[in-house]
Amino acid sequence: MSEPIYNASTPKGGDPTQIDVNLQYSGIEYNYVYIISCAFIVWLIMPGIGLLYSGLARRKSALALLFQCFLVIAVITVQWMFWGYSLAYSRDGGPYIGTLKNFGLIDVMIAPSSGSAVLPEVVFCYFQLLFCACTVIIVIGGAFERGNILPSLLFGFCWATIVYCPLARWTWSSKGWLYNLPSLDYAGGGPVHIASGCTALAYAFVLGKREHSAEEVPRRKPHNVTLVFLGTAFIWCGWVGFNGGSTLNASVRSMVSIFNTNAAASTGILGWVLIDLIRYRGRFSFVGACEGAIAGLVGITPAAGFVSLWLAACIGFITSIICALLQDLNKWIRIDEGMDVFKLHGVGGIVGAFLTGIFASESVSALDGATYQGGAIDGIGVQVGRQLAEVCAISVYAFIVSAVLLYLINWIPGMKLRVGEEVEGVGLDRGLFVEEEIGDWGLFGMGVVEGVRSSGSSSPAQTQETVVKEK
Question: What would the pLDDT profile of 397-417 be if each residue is shown by its tens digit?
């Protein structure tokens, strides 16, 4: 059976009370079954990031990071239903932003989607929603241990509207200017990783440094390495669906991208562990291994559906080596971005986009039967320049617009971006959450927490004298 064709006279795909709307997908149902299955797997990334951030943070702010990740899912779902999907993927509109034709998901149902004719639009809409939510969750790492929760949620809603949706339009809509350049971005090296990394950097810059960040907060002292491992495992698993479903069909290209994703994460671990063995004179860092896996996953994201198996492994290895060598990046740029979002996602995304321009192969992209795009390895050297154009456009736009948006929100009464000195001293958990959920043993019962309760009358000076004591 031929692929379904979008009929503008029946934008919802037909009246299900009059006809069997499933018949248009008869014989090709495996495509949307596959994509919705990938979407279920992608969902694991979101709690995975929450667990990772919580484990990397000090104990006194671990619950706040989990809570923010959970709330972001809800906020971005509302944003996407409200106007996010329409701004990014409406069929009309220009190369930079869509229209409000699908405002409130009007006419979004079972007609063939704008992204793939073999997907009902509601499936395509849900899959892309998860990309947006994952990106915003990555961004909140920039507010590490000092960001106020309500302003961060407002920022997430606005940022998804004026930053993520335009970038998704540029990159993945058939009318987008980067799509037609063309730049090659298989699954989000630009809109997801470069954008989130640069935005987290802007967030940390606007907030300023944490109190005593240089002397009293060691950069690599996670409060729970087990959570770091669990978060990384969830992210790795979810990334398989993230990249595997980005063909938007169940083709052989999807299967290759899944293998490439696993290969890059594996060589990413090896690259980072190698650097750590040299740096620490024969000692290992488990957190470093987890960072290596994420660096490899970030690097392969724009390339997974464009490169061969061994080149995918090389991309993961190279990306992790470069990110690992930037251990002191925050000191060099003098911005306290303690969660290393910019280093892993921003720099990793830039490296991945650049290497995609070099290693992309038409013989791999053609595995879906419709895409024929290659890079320098196929003799198309100009593709490297196109990739650099994408990197520059997305990084500059994301950083500048995010910084301006943050300053504007900070001026709104009641929306101060940074918590007060007292709350930062005792930790976001005690300062922002009900005591019954914290207890005297900290999150998950790990170590005694002593400090001033947020409801007490202690002064900031007293708070500094009774700051959280950890094992």
Answer: 999 999 999 999 999 999 999
Residue-wise pLDDT tens digits, 229-280:
999 999 999 999 999 999 999 999 999 999 999 999 999 999 999 999 999 9
What angle is formed at CA 26 by the lines to CA 22 and CA 31, rounded to 5 degrees?
A: 95
pTM: 0.91
Three-state secondary structure call for residue 13: coil
**Residue/partner pairs of 177-183 with CB below 8 Å, 24 or more apart:** 177/95, 177/96, 178/389, 178/390, 178/393, 180/95, 181/386, 181/389, 181/390, 182/373, 182/386, 183/353, 183/386, 183/387, 183/389, 183/390
Say if CB 195 and CB 133 are below 8 A apart: no
The two tokens of residue 276 are 């750590």
Q: Rounded mean pLDDT of the chain?
A: 89
pLDDT digits (tens, 9 = 90+) for 19-28: 999 999 988 9
Place of tokens 């299955």: 37
User: Looking at the DSSP assignment, which residues form a beta bridge with residue 120?
Assistant: 112
The DSSP H or E segment spanning 39 is helix 29-42
Beta bridge partners of 418: 147
DSSP 394-442: HHHHHHHHHHHHHHHHHTSTT--SB--HHHHHH-HHHHHS-GGGT-SS-
Q: For 180, which DSSP code? A: T
C-beta separation of 147 from 203 below 8 A:
yes
Question: How large is the average pLDDT for residues 7-32?
Answer: 90
Instruction: Assess contact for 374 and 365: CB atoms under 8 A.
Output: yes
Which helix (H) or strand (E) covers residue 105, if one does?
none
Could you tell me the CATH superfamily of domain 21-410?
Answer: Ammonium transporter AmtB like domains (1.10.3430.10)
- Which tens digits make up the pLDDT trace of 158-187? 999 999 999 999 999 999 999 999 999 999
User: Rounded to the nearest 5°, which phi and psi values hold at 418?
Assistant: -105, 140
The torsion of the CA quartet 204, 205, 207, 210, rounded to 10 degrees, works out to 70
DSSP, res 112: B
Provide the token pair at 436: 């019954």
- Helices 225-244 & 121-139, crossing angle to 10 degrees? 150
Domain ranges of the chain: 21-410, 421-465
DSSP 267-332: HHHHHHHHHHHHHTTT---HHHHHHHHHHHHHHHTTTTTTS-HHHHHHHHHHHHHHHHHTTTHHHH
